[in-house]
Amino acid sequence: MLSSIYEFLGNWGYHHPIHPTEVHMPIGLVVGAVIFAILARLFRRERLASAASSCILLAFVWTFPTILFGFMDWQQFYGGAWMFPIKAKIALAPFLALFLFVAVLLGRKYGAASLKVISSYLLCFICVVALGYFGGEMVYIWNKTPSSEEFKKGEMAFITNCRPCHPQGGNVIDPSKPVHRSRELKTFELFDALVREPKGEMPCFSPSEIPEAEMKELYDYIVNVLDRK
After folding, report:
1. Is the separation of the CB atoms in 229 and 167 below 8 Å?
2. N or C end: fewer C-beta atoms under 10 angstroms in the chain?
């Protein structure tokens, strides 16, 4: 079911995760709510307070599809791997939803220009900043590995399928079992068997996900570029 959704999007030319397209909505709305609420208090403008209340309500509503798409992307692109940034985001997401709900209730009772409400908005802001930080960790914690044009296809296969759990050839799930110098890299057959039928928490990659030709390019990239750093 999940793969079919991404396959459908891929048929229309969209091959990226969905979550990043949605996550900016609650973040931007929370930032807007904080700014409008502070301005409403400073200049005593009811319209600004109303705008702040509308922003925080929309942020609360949009949080739920954002969480849903985040979960879907985690399963599809990360194989459900329990990376630390994922754990942090899963822990923080319910708190953000709760903080937003409380902020909505307080806004209805005291008005968005109230110090209590502004404080609740700031708490939501801190939460979205923390979520954004751990989201950034997943993308930028590793440096881009340079490679020659000869291994570009293999590099792209690694970025798409492997890098989330194996940045720079490491292993974020089990640091004691990095890709570097792994015995499964001794031959393509060993590597192919590992990827097709892995052990432990590593997800398997079927030929429909990584065709055999792409698997060979991936292996060549790891052996000739990544494993020599």
Report:
1. no
2. N
Dump pLDDT digits (tens) for 37-46: 999 999 999 9
Q: Which fold has domain 149-228?
A: Cytochrome Bc1 Complex; Chain D, domain 2 (1.10.760)
Alpha helix (H) ranges present in the chain? 2-11, 19-43, 46-78, 84-110, 115-140, 152-161, 188-196, 212-224
Architecture of domain 2-140: Up-down Bundle (1.20)
Return residue ranges of the chain for CATH 1.10.760.10.
149-228
Q: String of b and e for 166-193 (b: at least 16 CB within 10 Å)? A: bbebebbeeeeeebbebebbeeeeebbe
Q: Where, residue-wise, is CATH 1.20.120 in the chain?
A: 2-140
For residue 79, give the nearest of 215, 182, 211, 200 by alpha carbon.
200
Angstrom distances, CA of residue 89 to CA of 1, 131, 146, 159: 24, 6, 29, 21
Provide mean pLDDT across the span 182-204. Answer: 90
Q: pTM of this prediction?
A: 0.67
Q: In this predicted model, what pLDDT tens digit does every residue of 151-171 receive, in sequence order?
A: 888 988 998 888 888 877 888
| Token pair belonging to 199 | 């052990």
Q: How many angstroms separate the CA atoms of 70 and 139, rounded? A: 14
